[in-house]
Every structure is written in C-alpha cells, then in structure tokens.
Amino acid sequence: MIGKIAQLIPTKPPIYESPSGLEQVIVNTINNAVSWGLGIIGILAVVFIILGASRMVAAAGNEEQVKIGRATIIYAVIGLIVVILSWVIVNSIILIIPK
In principle, which of 30, 62, 97, 98 could form an S-S bond with 16, CB 3.0–4.6 Å? Predict the structure, then answer.
C-alpha cells in the first residue's frame, strides 16, 4: 500500500516541453506586436509632453493656456506610466510561459 502511494508522489518537478514551432511563432508575433505598439505609444506620450510644455511657454500669461498645457503634460505622463507598466506585465507573462 505505502509503495503504491510512494510511486504516485513525483520526485522531480515537471519538465515542460518547449513549445512547438507554431506556438513559438505565435508567442514571438505577439511579443513583437506589443513591443512595437508600446514603442509607438511611448513616442506619442513624449511628443505630447513636448507639446504641453511648448503650449505653457507660448501662453504669454494666458492662464487658460497654461492650464491646458499642464493638463496635457499630466495626461501624457500618466499615459507613459501605463505604457511602462503594461510592458512590464507583458514581459512578465512571457517569462512565465514555459520555453
């Protein structure tokens, strides 16, 4: 009885097989698409930070323009933080997938 139970207990951790060619292609394609998309969004965030700053500089004392420029910068920074966090999440998930 104890011998049969001992046979059921694994002595080594499971070994995951590497993904087949198609699975690896799918993972690589998703990784590349996400990397490109996040890169483009990150560049857009930096462009909006520059636009917000230039609007603040060109405001010439107009408080409304300064508020609009400040809001643009704040939203662009929030967007940049979201992009960085999403990149971290995607790469963490890719590392979890057995290779």
Answer: 98
Q: Which of 99, 42, 30 is nearest to 76 (CA)?
A: 42
DSSP secondary structure letters along 27-75: HHHHHHHHHHHHHHHHHHHHHHHHHHHHHHHTTTT-HHHHHHHHHHHHH
- How far apart CA 55 and CA 65 sit, in angstroms, is 7
Q: For residue 52, which amino acid is it? A: G
CA nearest neighbour of 99 among 31, 4, 11: 31
Q: Give pTM, 2 decimals.
A: 0.65
The pLDDT-based confidence of 31 (bands split at 50, 70, 90) is confident
